[in-house]
Amino acid sequence: MSENRRRAERLSSSARILWKRQGDDFLQLDRVRDVSAQGAFVVSDAVSEPDAALEFELHDEAGRALASGVAKVVRLGDGGMGIAFLDVTIDAAEVSQSMPPPRPPPPLPAAAPPLPTAPAATSVEWVAPQLEPLSVPPLDRVIIGIDLGTTNTCAAWVDERVGEGRPQIIPGRTGGNTIPTMINFDTDGRIHVGQRAADRQILYPRRTVYGSKRLIGRTWQPELAAEAQGHFAYPLGEAEGQRFGIDLGDQVVSMDAVAARVLREVRATAEDFLQREVRSAVITVPAYFSEVQREAVRRAAFMAELTVHRIVNEPTAAAVAYGHARGEEARVAVWDFGGGTFDFSVVDIRDERYEVVATGGDNFVGGADFDDELASMILERFLEAEGLEELEPTPQQIARLREAAELTKRALSVQSEFDVRLTDFAREPKRDLSVTITREDFEARTAPLVERTLTIARGVLLSASILPEEIDDVVLVGGTTRIPAVQRAVAELFGRRPSKRINPDEAVAHGAALLGHEISAGEGPVLLDLLPMTVGHAIDARRFVPVVKRNERLPCVEVLTFGGDLLGRIQVPLFQGESPDAAQNEYLCTVVVEDARLRDGERAQIRLSFDEHCLMAIDAFVERSGKPLEVTLDRERPLEDILQDLGAFDGPPAPEAWQLPETRISKVLGKLFGFFRKK
Ligand SMILES: Nc1ncnc2c1ncn2[C@@H]1O[C@H](COP(=O)(O)OP(=O)(O)OP(=O)(O)O)[C@@H](O)[C@H]1O
Ligand SMILES: [Mg+2]
User: Fold this and answer.
1) 149 in helix, strand or coil?
2) Ligand 1: residue whose CA is nearest its atom 17
3) Does ligand 1 have an atom closer than 6 angstroms to the CB of 406?
4) At what angle do helices 664-672 and 222-229 cross, to 10 degrees?
5) Domains (ranges, CATH) in the chain?
6) Would you give the distance in Å from CA 316 to the centre of its chain?
C-alpha cells in the first residue's frame, strides 16, 4: 500500500470539518469519514438542507488544515449527510489520493518535422500589430484542436498510434470531455477556471464570468453594454483598449484576458494528459465571428503561450469531422447551435476538400437564451403560485434560477414535464420554489428563438440559391440541437432526418484536431471558406460603404482608392456587418496613412487582404507608381469620437445591431448593474 493511500485512510477515519457560513458567525465542527477528492460523509445532525452550499475547512485530528473550499449537501441520512466538494483547495496531498487521475497516453516520439511558417509581414500592418505572425516555428509537433465554446471548451488531438488516426478527446481535470468556459475571481486574488469556477457561480455570481465569448474582441459602447448587461449576472465594464470586461470593483478584466486564462488551462490540462509540452493549436471560432473577434481569440491564445496554426470556423471543423477519411462526395448543411451562438453553413465535401458555399449566423442566440427565457418563466410561475406581486431577484437567486432552468431544459429534451424545486428560494417571506414546467410551455416560450435560426438558415440558402432538397445530409452540432423542437424544425426545413454520424459535443474539437494533425504532418485537407460578414468603411453621416462583400471566397483582396485632393493624412474607419448605418456594425479599426503627400493627379490606394483564416492585413501605396505609403492601424481612438466626427446617420432606419430578447431576468440584471436600455 502506498504511503499516500495509508495517509488517505488514516485521514478518512480521523478528519473533522469546520463549517462556516458567509455573512454571519456560524461555525460548526463535525467528524467526517470517507473523504475523497469529490466529497465526504459528515457524521452529524444536518447542518443544512440538501443543495445548500457552505464554506468549509477540513482538519486532521491535530487541527491541521488539510483542505478548504465550498461543499454542497447532497444526501441526508445514516446519521449524517453526504457532501460534495464544489470547490476545494487541497493543502495536503492525501485528500486527492483516493481518486485515480485519467490515464495519460504513452509519450510520443520526439522527432518533429518542420512546419510551414507564414511569410513575414513587412510594410503590411496586421490588425493587432503587436502580435507575431500567425505561424512561428513550433516548439513541439503536437498541434491540438480547441473548440473554445461559449459554455464548454473541448480539446482533442490525434494520436497516430491509436484508433487509426481518429481524434481523441483530451479530458478535463475532473474527467469530463469538456470544461466549462468560466472563470471565478476570488476576493483573495485566486482565479478558478472551468468546473471550479462553475461550482462557485451560485455563491459568487458577481465575480464569475460566463458567456465571455459573446463579447470577446468587441468594441465597448455604452449602448451595446446596456443591451448586453441583461444577459450577464455579473457587472460589465469597459476594459483597456475599449473592450468589454467584468467589473470587479477595483479592476476591469477584459473578455480577451478571460479567454486567455481558459486557453491556458486547456493547454496545461493537455500537457498533463499528453505528458509533453503543448505550444500549438488549431482553434475554432463561430463562422459568424467578425475579424476583430477572431483576432482577439488569436491574441488570447498568444497570451496563453499557444501558437495558432489555423483559425477555423466551427461548422467547417464539424464538416471535416464528418467527412474525414470517407472519400465521399456530399453537400452537407451544418446546423451548429451551441450555448451562445448559432452558425449555419453549407459545405461541399469532395474527398479531402471542403468548400463552404454559404454561411451565416447570429452570435446572440444560443442555449443561454433558452435558459434565460425558462428562468424568467420559472420565476413568474413562482410569483403567481405564491401570490407575490413583485420580487426582484438577487444575483444569487438569478444564478440559482438559471442553473435550475438549464437542468429543466435538459430534462425536457427527454421527458414531457419537470418539477423544479429550490429550497429556501425566498427569505422574506421565506418560501421554497416548486413549479412544474411542461415541454409544451417551454416550446411555446422559446419558439421565437428557434424561429430566429430558421430565418437565418433560410436567408443563407436563399443567398446562395440552394434549395433545401439539394442538401444531401444535415449535421447537427452543439448541445442546443438536443432540444426536440430544434430537431423538428431542422427536419421540417430539409424534409429529412438529421445525420447521427457525428457527436454534437465533440465534432468541432475533432475537426480541429484532424486539421492540426494534418498541418503538423505537412499536409492538409483543402479548406475553402468564406468571409462571413461584409467589411467596409464609414463615410459622412455614418454611411457604411461595403468594400468586401460577405460570402466572398477567402483569401481575398480589395483595394480602396482615394483621390488626390486628400492631401496629408488619410483616415479610414473600417467596420464589419450588413447595416447601412456604420455604427450598427462591428468597429474594426481606423486605417491611418500618414504623410500621404500625393502629387497632382496621384491617388492613394489602401489594400485590404483577408487570409484563409479570415484575418486582415492592410497596406497602402501610390496608385500608379506603386510607391509604398506608411500605414498604421488605430484602435485607441474612442469610437464615440469617430462616430461624432461622421455625424448623425441620415439613412433609412437600420435594424438594431444586437437583437437581444428582453426577459424578466434581463430587465432585473440591467437595472441591478446600473444600465438602462434605451427606448
Ligand atoms: N440535453 C440537452 N438539451 C437541451 N440543451 C442542452 C442539452 N445538453 C446541452 N444543452 C445545452 O447546450 C449548450 C451547450 O452546448 P455546446 O457545448 O455545444 O455550446 P458551446 O460550444 O459552449 O457554445 P457555442 O458553440 O455557442 O460557442 C448549453 O446551453 C446547454 O444547456
Ligand atoms: Mg460550440
Assistant:
1) coil
2) 152
3) yes
4) 130
5) 3-96 (2.40.10.220), 180-258 (3.30.420.40), 535-646 (2.60.34.10)
6) 17
Nearest to 14 by CA among 119, 69, 92: 92
With the most atoms of ligand 1 within 8 angstroms of its CB, the residue from 147, 152, 334 to mutate is 152
Maximum CA extent, the chain = 93
Say if ligand 1 is within 6 A of residue 340 CB. Answer: yes
Question: Could you give the CA distance from residue 582 to residue 578 in angstroms, rounded to a whole number?
Answer: 9
Cα–Cα distance measured from residue 334 to residue 314, given in angstroms and rounded to the nearest whole number: 9
Residue 640, beta-bridge partner list: none
Which residue type, as a one-letter code, is found at position 659?
Q
Q: Which atom of ligand 1 is nearest to the CA of 504?
A: 18
For residue 254, which phi and psi values (nearest 5 degrees)?
A: -70, 155
**How is residue 151 written as a grid cell?**
459554455
pLDDT in tens, 108-158: 433 333 333 333 332 344 443 333 344 443 444 789 999 999 999 999 999
Scanning the structure block, which residue is given the C-alpha cell 479592476?
Answer: 251
Strand partners, 530: 553
Please give the helix or strand (H or E) that residue 39 lies within, else none.
Answer: strand 39-43
Residue 290: name the closest of 362, 358, 231 by CA.
362
In whole angstroms, give the CA distance from residue 512 to residue 497: 26
- Residue 508 CA: nearest ligand 1 atom is 21
Contact 308, 281 (CB under 8 A): yes
The residue behind cell 431542422 is 490
If you measure from the C-alpha of residue 338 to the centroid of ligand 2, how many angstroms do you get, rounded to a whole number? 5
Q: Are 546 and 537 in contact (CB under 8 A)?
A: no
Q: How far apart are the C-alpha atoms of 679 and 677, rounded to whole Å?
A: 6
Any ligand 1 atom below 6 A from CB of 366: yes
The amino acid present at 333, given as its one-letter code, is A
By most ligand atoms within 8 Å of CB, the mutation choice from 147, 148, 150 for ligand 1 is: 150
**If we measure between CA atoms, which residue out of 673, 590, 567, 604 comes closest to residue 637?**
590
Residue in 38, 156, 44 with CA at minimum distance from that of residue 100: 38
Establish whether residue 150 lines the binding site of ligand 1, counting it when its CB lies within 6 angstroms of any ligand atom: yes
Indicate the helix (H) or strand (E) that contains 401: helix 395-412
Tens digit of each residue's pLDDT (9 = 90 or more) over 540-582? 999 999 999 999 999 999 999 987 655 578 899 999 999 999 9
Q: Using the CB atoms, write b or e for 203-240: b if 16+ within 10 Å.
A: bbbbbbbbbbbbbbbbbbbeebbbbbbbbbbbbbbbbe
Q: Which helix (H) or strand (E) holds 331?
A: strand 329-337
pLDDT band at 327 (very low <50, low <70, confident <90, very high): confident
Q: Is 497 helix (H, G, I), strand (E, B) or coil?
A: coil
Which band of pLDDT confidence, cut at 50, 70 and 90, is reported for residue 267?
very high
Q: Is 409 in the pocket of ligand 1 (CB under 6 A)?
A: yes
Q: Are 160 and 521 in contact (CB under 8 A)?
A: no
DSSP state of 472: S
Which is nearest to 422 in space by CA: 387, 378, 388?
378
Provide the 8-state DSSP code for 205: G
- pLDDT tens string 447-472: 999 999 999 999 999 999 999 999 99
- Decide: 365 in ligand 1 pocket, CB within 6 A: no
Give yes or no for residue 213 CB within 6 A of ligand 1: yes
- Main-chain dihedrals φ then ψ at residue 507, nearest 5 degrees: -55, -40
